[in-house]
Each structure stands twice: as structure tokens, then as C-alpha cells.
Amino acid sequence: MTQSQRPRHVAVVMDGNGRWAKARLLPRLLGHQRGVEAARKVIRGCSQAGVECLTLFAFSSENWKRPEDEVSGLMSLFMTVLDREAEGLIRHNIRLHFIGDRHAFSPNLQAKISQTEAKTAHCTGMRLLIAANYGGRWDIIHAVQAYLKAHPQADPLTLTEQSIAPYLSTAELNVPEPDLFIRTGGECRISNFLLWQLAYAELYFTDKLWPEFNEQDLQAAFVDFAKRQRRFGMTGEQITQGTDHA
User: Fold this and answer.
1) Which of these is catalytic: 15, 139, 179, 217?
2) Reduced to 3 states, what is the DSSP secondary structure of residue 35?
3) 63 counts as catalytic
């Protein structure tokens, strides 16, 4: 696979942890724990493949509606994972960022997030974005509010994409927009994830539940992506001619 056929930015909805556990008569939290192992494989696979940025949807702004014990368990799991994985990220030269409204998290978790980001700040390899308490609609509204706060005299009727884009949660990280969106678990929807940023991403859905997703499944998604013709509003002929003249 050539560099041009490889996605620069991969975004993943890690769906199916609970169903994986339920099918085995196990607690849902154990499914999430197994999901961490799958995430580790995908992080390693993307890094080895030369992907520049990987964004994982870890906890949506709607996930607070889940049973209290599951939410509490997930918060504890976040703390454990941050403690356990930081050195591995550094060893593989991966820089960690969190996107989303972290103010809803406990002070201890907020501090741990900031500490882990700081520990990996010197890493120059793949960027790993964890979307936690994140929602695509929240991201857009927050960006509009930030723009209007920075430009109180601005006429809202003059707003453009170029006005808002610099205020999105991913903008200050200077990462490319996702090329490839992967969702596991058999559901075919985006679920309020990176709504603005996914505008021209290639969508890939698989029935595999997230704890079962591995490096071979990731490679299958890459192969499928390499077969796509990305037109960005142009015709196939224009894209082909542009390639011929390159």
C-alpha cells in the first residue's frame, strides 16, 4: 500500500463492548476492559502503518445516560488506563490528546488527563486523540460560541466555514481531517461523532464487536479504503486526469 493509499487520519467508533460481554454472560464493564485491549492493538497497528492521527470515541456526551454503575466503572477504567498506558505511548513515540468537555469529569480524572497529555507532549510520532464527553453537535456549537466571543462585533450572517473551523476541538491540534471512519458492532451510523470533520471521510462498517477487532480487521479496512476513489465534489474523470498530470 502506497503512502497516498494510506489514510492519514483514522477515526473509530468502538462499538460492541457491552454486547460482547452480554453474549458471554459477563458484566458490561468486563467488555469495556476487553475493549481496551482491542484499542491497544489498533493503536499499535495504526502507528506501524504510518497513520498520522488516530481518534478513538471513548465516551460520548450521551453516555452519561447509561446505568450509574457502568458510568462509574468507566471513569475508574479511564484512570487505570491512563496510569498503565502512558509509558507505552512514550515508548512508541505517540502523543496523546483529549478532545471533549472534560469539565464534567472529576477533578482527579481531569488532572490525570492533563498529566498524561504533558508526559507525551514531546512525542513526535502518531497523534492519538481520545474523544471523551464529546459530541459533534457540542463541538460545532462550542466553536460558534468561541468565535462570537472572540469577535463580539461580528455579524452572524457573515459566518463562513473558515470562520468556525479554527475553533473546533481538533483545530488547535493541527491534525488533518479524518480520511477513514471505522465503526464496529454492526451499526451503520456516525452517532454524533466528529460531524464537521467527517464531511469527506470514507465510511467503513463491520459486524465485528469491538473486543474482537484486531490488526487483521484494521488491515482489511485499510485495503477497502485504498480501493475508494475520493472525489471531494469533483468527477471521477477530473480526479483521474489530476493523477495523470501529477
Assistant:
1) 15
2) helix
3) yes
